[in-house]
Amino acid sequence: MQSKYDILQENEQDPQKASQEIARELELFLLPLLQVLDTFLDKRLVRTLVQCCVAIVRFRNNKQGLLLSELGSYMDGYQGLSVSAAAGTKRISNLIRSIKWSVFHIDQYLAEEADKEVKRLKDLGKRVLCIWDGSVVEKPESSRAEGLCPVVSSKAKRLNRSRKGHVFNMPAVRPILVTGMHWTGALIAGLEGIPKIALMSWWTTKGDYATKTRKQEEEMIRTCVRKWGDILIHIFDRGYASGPWIQFLQTLKVKFVIRWIKKHNFFDMKGEEKKLWQIGRGKKYLAHKLIFDVHTGEKMPCDIWWTSVWHASYAYPLYCVKVRVKQKVCYLITNEPVKTETQAWEIVFLYKRRWQIETSFRYGKCELAMEGRTALSGDRAQPRFLLFKSKKSKVGRRGMTSDTLGQAWNRKRGSQLLQLIFFDFGKPVRRDFVGENLPQAPSMIG
Q1: Which of 55, 51, 49, 84 has the alpha carbon at shortest distance from 67?
Q2: Is pTM beyond 0.85 here?
Q3: Higher pLDDT, 60 or 222
């Protein structure tokens, strides 16, 4: 019999046992944070926090979002039904509005966890990356929520695409704007392994708490530099490719890799000002290699060429690495020396790690159905791993399925689902357990 038709062993088929194992994994995963919160929060509030996380793992996704009252109805264990939904909602409200904690405690915890990862990678002699990117949380139906501002809708752009043989839409003259919030984050990572989230910030360009994009980004990167100095290599996408930004990075004396826009002007080694794509035009690629794509699982031919360049806003020499993968070309600008093939490939692989933060944003918006913070005023209203409004559930029409914790965890590939609950990553667990039995409550939830 072929292996794909093998029947699971009896102990692997026990859904009760599997769900209980996952419940313990969840408890252990939350344990460091719970120990911190236990020093200044009542134990009943800590227990409520764990119960919230269990309910979110089981029921919260892009199809089933939980309102606060619905989340409260799943607080009394794993049955999916409760006669005291109002009491559960009240307990969540007490947790959120407790004066004994604030967003500062969560930020401090995240910074400490990121600092441990930086020290670990440094002791191993490995490169430490700080991966930056920005996104938006769209709230197109809202008009009165605090902190709303115009944001570019990626969903509207995606829905407006033409489908060959089915539908044709004229390209939009201007981007479609909807109400929402801006979102900026930074990950600490090595060239391999699980990243740690160091900073996450939601902000607006309207109202009493209005700020500007560059001001917010500068404030966040200064926080990283004050804590870790020049240990980190900062990875940026094309949204950061500008003269003022690299001029600011020069004042901080940080190392960086930026994917640059090909139409921007640079000076070549002869001192002639050209567009970036013109500098490498007609040049033979200097190195070739097959690289593995973690998303598709295929090996792709990759060609690179590198040279030294100058920019009018940067006082020191920069290096350009031209990368061609699947006939698509991108340009990486760095202040790290690139004089050998080994150094050039290292810059390529540093930038490839940037996809980790895209995954982080996707899990937050798709898997957890996040729609942004409920408030901007007052630190007590911003425990960042918990206070996210989610999409309205269709419980009234269809009812909500009651999954075991193991099934919900399995569907979200283990504790990766929890990364946006308090901004961390865990390890995936096995995907082979089945069944509909409900797990017993772990000790800290009981």
Answers
A1: 55
A2: no
A3: 222
